[in-house]
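Sample entry was shown:

___
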Amino acid sequence: MTEPSGPHRRIADTIRPAMMEGLHGATLHGSDGAQHIAAWVDWIAEAVTVHVVQPIADERDAFADRVDTLSHVAQNHKKAYSAAARDVQRLEARVAELEAEVEQLREASPDSPGS
């Protein structure tokens, strides 16, 4: 049997002492009993890992992926907004220039209503 690691190992290490204490005095004695108890603990730890820990980890990873995606979208929107704001300022400046130019042409025109 390969040596488990990560959450499986932590769960087994947590369960094992309580199980050993709880089964103290049971018909499981000696090294054979300890092996049976260890196998039982490993089975429980595997079940907890597969049915509790892994789904939570998968959900956490999926949530992190969604956050990363939304952060990327928000950054792109922020850049696009900044570019649009610069375009608006540039266009407003150009409109002011053209309005001033039109006013000058009107003042210079002999047919202008104010002449």
